[in-house]
Amino acid sequence: MSMRAKLSKSANLLKLPQLVSIIGAMLLLCAYSPLDKKEDGKILTVAIDAGHGGHDAGCSYGGAKEKDVTLAIALKLGKAIEKIMPDVTVIYTRAKDEFIELHERAGIANRKNAHLFISIHCNANKKTEVFGTETFSMGLHKSDGNLEVAKRENEVILLEKDYQEKYEGFDPNSPEAHIYFSFLQSAYLEQSLKLAAKVEQHFMDVKRSSRGVKQAGLMVLWKSKMPSVLIETGFLSNAKERAYLTGEQGQDELANAIANAVKEYKTSVEKK
Q1: pLDDT digits (tens, 9 = 90+) for 191-233
Q2: Residue 77 and residue 151: Cα distance in Å, rounded?
Q3: Nearest-5° Cα angle at 49, 239 to 163
Q4: Does domain 42-271 have CATH number 3.40.50.150?
Q5: CA gap 128, 24 in Å, rounded
Q6: CB contact set of 209 (below 8 Å; sequence gap of 6+)
Q7: Residue 230: strand pairing partners
Q8: Contact at 8 Å (CB) between 137 and 196?
Q9: Are strands 133-138 and 228-235 parallel, antiparallel or unpaired?
Q10: What are the domain boundaries of the chain?
Q11: Are strands 45-50 and 116-123 parallel, antiparallel or unpaired?
Q12: 260: which residues sit within 8 A by CB, 6+ positions away?
């Protein structure tokens, strides 16, 4: 199918107000230049987001809850970054078991003028043999699998009060809505993909199985005003990976791998 035909097919799925919003967002993005020269282009503040929390447990298997695993890895990641990059300030969207709304996670990073936003998650699949890491940037999901990840992560907004007003009528069950929101982070897409690629490379360096760098319309990355990634550290639904994700050694390896990826990305950006 040609690109024109694909766009025509997508357009037929969308209502006129949605098309107008999408076109408007695209025009704004074309005229928008990201502020990637803050502090002379240095990476000085990193926001770390431990996915889920509080009454939102995330996925749960074998007694392990995603909210607990993500918090443990996030805190270890912060310490690892501070150790190998003393000039970097680390901020957390949550440092304990509490529920933070998705829009507020990016809001915290924005208010603190963070230069990077890293959201830590665990994956799940009905096929319990599936395993491996994935790192996402905000963008168009190129497969049904990517869309399913976006839907699962975005369902959290249903736990928030007045979510339709906060997210401009976003329906987490609508593929068209995910397409619309995926446009909104494209200003930082190139930088986000570079960081994501480094994360996956460093995961492979510690013998993790990488499922690659991917794109999807993820609400937690929606309004972040900096390069942003969502890291699926492994599948809690897989018994072997679950043991790795809940163990100290596994969490330390993951945190150190992500920290090394951030350091490599920081070095590449600051050399320019």
Answers
A1: 999 999 999 999 999 999 999 999 887 877 877 889 999 999 9
A2: 26
A3: 100
A4: no
A5: 42
A6: 131, 132, 133
A7: 119, 136
A8: yes
A9: antiparallel
A10: 1-28, 42-271
A11: parallel
A12: 84, 202, 205
